[in-house]
Every structure is written in structure tokens, then in C-alpha cells.
Amino acid sequence: MFGLVKRPYFTIRALFFIASFARGVFFICGFYGLKAFFAFDFLLFQLKILKNFIFKNPRALFLVYVKNSKTKIMKKAILLFALALGSTFAMKAQSKDPMVGGAAMYPTKDIIENAVKSKDHTTLVAAVKAAGLVPTLKSKGPFTVFAPTNEAFEKLPAGTVETLLKPENKAKLSSILTYHVVAGKVSAKKLIGMIKKGNGKAEIKTVQGGILTASLEGGKVKLTDENGGTAFVTIANVFQSNGVIHVIDGVLTPKM
After folding, report:
1. How far apart are the first and last CA of the chain?
2. Which parts of the chain fold into alpha helices (H)?
3. 85 burial class (0-12, 13-18, 19+ CB within 10 angstroms)?
4. What DSSP designation does 167 have?
5. Chosen CATH of 111-248 out of 2.30.180.10, 3.40.190.10, 3.30.470.20, 2.40.30.170
6. Is-contact 250 231, C-beta < 8 A?
7. Does the reported pTM lie above 0.85?
8. What is the mean pLDDT of each run of 10 residues along the chain (256 residues)?
């Protein structure tokens, strides 16, 4: 504790010595130094009080020092907390799922809960319901779903969707839909890694049992079905609580 008091105490002693010397000089000067004499006399009085306070009350000085230190530490802590909080929000914003069909996709919700919000996937949702696959896609999974848009279904021959939605075609519809589903959570990064590892191609086994072939074309992931049909991933990495969705611009069909 004396270490905290030592420097200011000896500084006061030095000032006390200088003031005493100046007081003596002005006293010798007589009348012309009278005002200065009384001024230094008052200064000496103040220095005596300060010197005695510091020497006899080091704890008070220590408490002032600690209080100031704590204030500085608290300010630094608040600043660091604010920076950390800002970084957290920035990271959260950057990692947010993309919008799909004009709706926000939430990673805390499952595939079905998010899909029903997308205005671009009303046909797919209707097909999933007709095929009785809702319980499967709401289960723990995880699943990777290549989700065709409404426009993708419109590319099919006229009347195809209406025919598939009929109860008697439930098995065929289920086969086509599960051909778009892969067991496990396959992100775009992982899929591209598989393609590179396979020298430009990656064969992916679907839940239906058939194979999809993934490749890269024009910087996009291209999927080719067993009949030679193709589709491109237009929106990747829409993460769900039970997997991930990759939006595609075509309907893929397995060999029947």
C-alpha cells in the first residue's frame, strides 16, 4: 500500500521545500515581497494539510485509486461487451437463411413448416400432402430436399401434375418426390466437395433408392436424373431444424 502513497507523498515534500525557500527569499525582500510572502505562507499551510493527509491516511488515497481503476475497468468491460454483442448480431445476420418464395425461412422450424410459407412451392406442398409424406418430412431426419418450384412443375407435360395428384397414383407420386430427398444433411459446400472429389461428378443415392448425378456447370450445381433430365440449384443452403433445402428449377424423375 505504501507504494501507492510513496510517489505523491515525496512530490508534496518537494513542493513544500520549494515553497519554504521562496517564502524565505520574499521575507528578506522586505515590503516589496510582503504580498508574495503571505501568498507562499498560505501555500505552505495548504501543503502541510495535504502532506499530513497523505501520510496519515494512505488508505483513503488507496480507495480513490481503486475507485478510479474500477471505473476504467468497467468502461473497458462495457466497451468489450458492446463490441462482442455487435459482432454476435452481425454474425447472426450473415448466417440468416435466404428468403424463399417471399417468406423468411427459420432454421428452428422443420422442412414442412418452412415449405408451406413459400409461395413458390405450393404445388410441391400439395404433392407432399397427397403422397402422405408430411409425417416423414416433419420427423427428426435429417434430410436434404431438392425442392422444385411451381415453375419447375409447369415445365412438365400438360396434365401431368393433375394426374399425379389423383389417389390412384399415390405410389408413383411418392416415388418421384422421395427421388428428390437424400438422407442426411448435405450442404452446398459438402456437395461441391463430393463433386470435386469425384473428378467433376458425384452420385447421390436418394431415399427412393435411385441415383442423382451432381456436377458443376456455369458455377452452379447441376443435377441429372436417371432419365437424362436436369435441374439447377437456384437457392442453396436453406437450413431447417431437420435438414436442409436446396431450391431447384426442374422436376427430376427416376426410372420407373
Report:
1. 88
2. 2-28, 34-56, 58-94, 111-115, 122-130, 134-138, 150-154, 160-164, 170-178, 188-197
3. exposed
4. G
5. 2.30.180.10
6. yes
7. no
8. 46 56 52 48 55 53 48 52 47 60 89 93 95 93 95 94 95 96 95 94 96 94 95 94 95 91
Instruction: For 41, list phi and psi in degrees, rounded to 5.
Output: -65, -40
d(CA 70, CA 152): 64
Burial group, residue 50, by CB count within 10 angstroms (0-12, 13-18, 19+) = middle
Identify the residue whose cell numbers are 519554504. 20
In angstroms, rounded to a whole number, what is the distance separating the alpha carbons of residues 256 and 128?
19
Name the residue ranges covered by the structural domains of the chain.
2-93, 111-248
Q: Are 230 and 224 in contact (CB under 8 A)?
A: yes
pLDDT at 66: 45
